[in-house]
């Protein structure tokens, strides 16, 4: 069985400051891990994915995440927040095949001017 | 290259009715899956299709069904609608269902179909 915990339901940062969105997972399999972003009234856009090639994964828009197996974590970071980063972020775990994704509950990121 | 297209984008139905939602995957993609998003339950997996065969099914009642056509387009149907079925229904597509490893596929989501049951 797989599960995802996103430790913060809401994170608020000032524009230009670092972003940290936390994710812990549980998986019986060697997992694939993803971060998706959802802007209001929009579908989900892939930010980045981990599929065992490298533990530090770089994504779009300056986001990156580090897979730490010992901590079962996959935290999302960005050095400097932009107003356009305000959205809902979902951490996702899946087995190494198929589309049966297990989504975390989401973290809403607010960026203050 | 066109993205995943879902129709209709918005619809309102009455309790007891049925609804059919459509999804056109990205050209060349053969795997399609469906998800339900609600404020209370978050994003939940409904089912996945590959080459017209259902590969996986989530924990939803039999009122929820789907199918995939030979051109990879997919439909999902909800019969005997309940108020709790009000949700955003998201479709996702990828080239193949396996593997999702280092050389594997990216999953692309459509913008969803907003269903309101009154």
Description of the structure:
The complex is a heterodimer of chains A (113) and B (118). By secondary structure, chain A is mostly beta strands. Chain A has strands at residues 2-6, 10-14, 19-21, 23-27, 32-38, 44-50, 56-58, 64-68, 73-78, 87-94, 102-103, 107-112. In chain A, the strands form three sheets. In chain A, strands 2, 5, 6, 10, 11 and 12 form a six-stranded mixed beta sheet that branches. In chain A, strands 3-9-8-7 form a four-stranded antiparallel beta sheet, with no helix packed on it. The radius of gyration of chain A is 13 Å and the shape is globular. Helices cover 0% and strands 51% of the residues of chain B. Chain B has no helices and eleven strands. In chain B, strands 2, 4, 5, 6, 9, 10 and 11 form a seven-stranded mixed beta sheet that branches. Chain B is globular. Chain A binds chain B through residues 32, 34, 36, 42-46, 49, 51-53, 90, 94-106, and chain B through 4, 31, 33, 35, 42-45, 48, 55-56, 58, 90, 92, 94, 97-102, 104, 106-112.
Compose a concise summary of this entry:
Chain A is mostly beta strands and 113 residues long. Chain A has strands at 2-6, 10-14, 19-21, 23-27, 32-38, 44-50, 56-58, 64-68, 73-78, 87-94, 102-103, 107-112. Chain A starts with a strand and ends with a strand.
């Amino acid at each position: 069985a797989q599960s995802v915990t996103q430790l913060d339901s809401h994170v608020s940062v000032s524009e230009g400051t670092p972003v940290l969105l936390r994710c812990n997972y549980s998986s019986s399999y060697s997992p694939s891990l993803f971060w998706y972003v959802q802007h209001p009234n929009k579908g989900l856009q892939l930010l980045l994915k981990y599929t065992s090639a490298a533990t530090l994964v770089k994504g779009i828009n300056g986001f990156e995440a580090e897979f730490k197996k010992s901590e079962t974590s996959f935290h999302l970071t960005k050095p400097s927040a932009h107003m356009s980063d305000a959205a809902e972020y979902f951490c996702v775990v899946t087995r190494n095949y198929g589309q049966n994704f297990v989504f975390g509950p989401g973290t809403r990121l607010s960026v203050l001017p | 290259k066109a993205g995943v297209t879902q129709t209709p984008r918005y619809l309102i139905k009455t309790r007891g009715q049925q609804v059919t939602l459509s999804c056109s995957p990205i050209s060349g993609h053969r795997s399609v899956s469906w998800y339900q998003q609600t404020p209370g339950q978050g994003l939940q997996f409904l089912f996945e299709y590959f080459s017209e065969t259902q590969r996986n099914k989530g924990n939803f009642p039999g009122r929820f069904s789907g199918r995939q056509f030979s051109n990879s387009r997919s439909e999902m149907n909800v019969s005997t609608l309940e108020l709790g079925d009000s949700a955003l229904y998201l479709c996702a597509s990828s080239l193949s269902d396996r593997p999702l490893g280092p050389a594997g596929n990216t999953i692309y989501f459509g913008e969803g179909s907003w269903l309101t049951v009154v």
